[in-house]
Design goal:
The chain is mostly helical and about 90 residues long. It contains 3 helices and 2 strands; from the N terminus they run ααββα.
Length: about 90
């Protein structure tokens, strides 16, 4: 793809539109184009958001595998761990 006087957003928008159109018109074998249409623009997230939320720079967004912070549950209370399993260890 060759473009002049464009910015990053222009290139991404053109590539997303082209990829979505190609996949909708020529779906991979075993996929029905009518059951799952690829929509654009694609979801975007920053590197920081991906690492903070999913712990990976290439998260699999098909599943709800967000990182949950349990540090408040595991804090020490009166010298003991707030988590019973950790207190018995």
């Amino acid at each position: 793809m060759e473009m002049s006087f464009v910015n990053e957003a222009d290139v991404m928008q053109t590539a997303e539109h082209l990829l979505a159109h190609a996949l909708n018109e020529c779906p991979p074998p075993g996929h029905n184009s009518l059951s799952s249409e690829i929509a654009s623009p694609f979801r975007r997230m920053t590197f920081h958001d991906a690492m903070h939320t999913y712990g990976s720079d290439k998260p699999d967004l098909r599943y709800g595998l967000e990182i949950i912070d349990f540090s408040a549950v595991c804090q020490k209370v009166d010298g003991n761990s707030g988590w019973k399993l950790a207190a018995k260890a």
